[in-house]
Amino acid sequence: MFSALKQAIKPRRSAHELQANVLAGLTVGIIALPLSMALAIATGVPPQHGLYTAIIAGIVIALSGGSSVNVSGPTAAFVVILLPIVHQFGLGGLLVSGMLAGFILLAMGLLRLGTFIELIPYPVTVGFTAGIGVVIGFLQIKDFLGLDITQDNGHFIQKVGSIFSALPSLRWQEALIASVTLGVLLLWPKAKSRIPGHLVALLAGACLAWLLTRHLPGFSVATIGSRFHYLVDGVQAAGIPSALPVFTLPWQLPDAQGRPIGMSFDLIRQLAAPALAIAILGALESLLCAVVADGMSGAKHDSDDELIGQGIGNIVVPFFGGIPATAALARTAANIRAGGSMPLASVVHALFIVIAMLLIADLLAYIPMASMAALLIIVAWNMSDAKLFMQTLKTAPRDDVAILLICFGLTVLFDMTLAVGVGLGMAAILFIRKSIDLTESRPVHDH
Predict the structure, then answer these.
(1) What is the pLDDT of residue 22?
(2) CB 179 within 8 Å of CB 371
(3) Angle ∠(409,412,416) on CA atoms, nearest 5
(4) Which has more pLDDT, 411 or 37?
(5) pTM score of the predicted model
(6) Mean pLDDT computed over 336-359
(7) Of the candidate ranges 117-121, 339-343, 397-401, the one whose mean pLDDT is the lowest
(8) Dist. CA 210–CA 204, nearest whole Å
(9) Tell me, what's the pLDDT at 409?
(10) Where are the alpha helices (DSSP H) in 44-113?
């Protein structure tokens, strides 16, 4: 337990190694700052809750988990599960469900289920992630085009129908800013610069929107400052608060009707299935991230310790306003490429976000919602991994293709909780079937 913390306090760390991890943490912090806000917005909560998640989870999970290089925080994988929870139970219900998921993850780690979870077949995980990517991408069309959609609840088909019905309300101002941001995101990698592309893209979108708003009569776009507000001493302010996260009991936060959600057995019963889905998906994401990180860094993670760390982090995070968290592959990969090799990098990334919240919260309010939508579309595209999805369809055995399509279809068309349950059931059946086939293929020796 706490193998990452043991790695962090390992003696005889060189000054060069410490410096490399501090610089890696700063690099990841620059990446995580806008992403954390964008993912919170996609989940249906104000952007500061994504920042709170990156701060608390970035420190707690890094020091209590089983990987020395994983960087945890809000991730795109959770959006499809969390958005319906917010619609039905509000912010309070979301944080309570995250806390319950933390206890489930902690139990998984203590029961040493890490190795079992890593054995889940790739068609299941590819189907989940591709489906999540498709849903997230479609959900961004509203802000990308500035559509006037008053009701965005319901299943995927209903949401797509609402988007098409709202196309006459398209605002060219929003579409222009979104297109410029998306163009920079697509073209910037060709410059081979060490500056993160999404930082440049958001700056370009925000600066263009600011200039056109000032100099072009009638030009306006929705921004974080115009969309989100918070209270300071009873006075409403725009954007995100320039303050640290404070300790709050999750069940005292509002439900979908704005009243404190409270804590009851009935609420726990209603949130049990979503919490289980969060825990399973979080376990899959964190362990998959750890495996990829091992291949990139040459390190070795402890899967059970990683689940314990994810559990502790998700139990603690809701008490500071944070949404469910897990290891994020994009941030972890950036950490390793920048020289990160120990939990210090994740801690520094969290402290960078703290400093940014305290110093530039007012500037973050100028980021256009259309630019955030463009960023999330790129995140969704990268997450869906269309190349791997198509390759699996073409080359995988028929059973694997069927599982892939079923998990993908359930994720997109129905409910992520259902998709997780069915996917795990199919994974278990496939595992048992392969075990039986392996047993039957072994030669029988007479004695």
Answers:
(1) 94
(2) no
(3) 100
(4) 37
(5) 0.90
(6) 95
(7) 117-121
(8) 10
(9) 92
(10) 48-64, 79-110
Helices (H), 216-340: 224-227, 265-297, 303-316, 329-337
Asked whether the predicted pLDDT for residue 13 surpasses 80, the reply is no
Alpha helices (runs of H) in 140-188, residue ranges in sequence order:
141-145, 156-165, 172-187
Q: Which residues are CB-neighbours of 396 under 8 A, at least 6 positions away?
A: 123, 404
Tokens of 22: 């501090």
Please compute, for residue 150, the number of CA atoms within 13 A of its CA located in the half-sphere on the CB side.
0
Contacts of 62 by beta carbon, 8 Å cutoff, 6+ apart: 4, 8, 70, 71, 72, 309, 343, 346, 347
What are the C-alpha distances in Å from 357 to residues 61, 233, 361, 414? Answer: 21, 19, 5, 37
> Which pLDDT tens digit goes with each residue over 169-204?
999 999 999 999 999 999 998 988 888 888 999 999
Residues 326, 403: Cα–Cα separation, whole Å: 25
Q: Compute CA distances 147 → 42, 170, 179, 369, 379, whole Å.
A: 16, 5, 15, 12, 21
Pick from 388, 435, 384: nearest CA to 411: 384
Which residue carries 């020796």 as its tokens? 445
Please state which of the ranges 34-38, 194-198, 317-321 shows the lowest mean pLDDT.
Answer: 194-198
Strands 229-232 and 72-73: unpaired
The 3-state DSSP class for residue 36 equals helix
The Cβ of residue 438 has, within 10 Å, a number of other Cβ atoms equal to 9
Task: For residues 9 and 29, give the distance between their C-alpha atoms in angstroms, rounded to a whole number.
Answer: 22
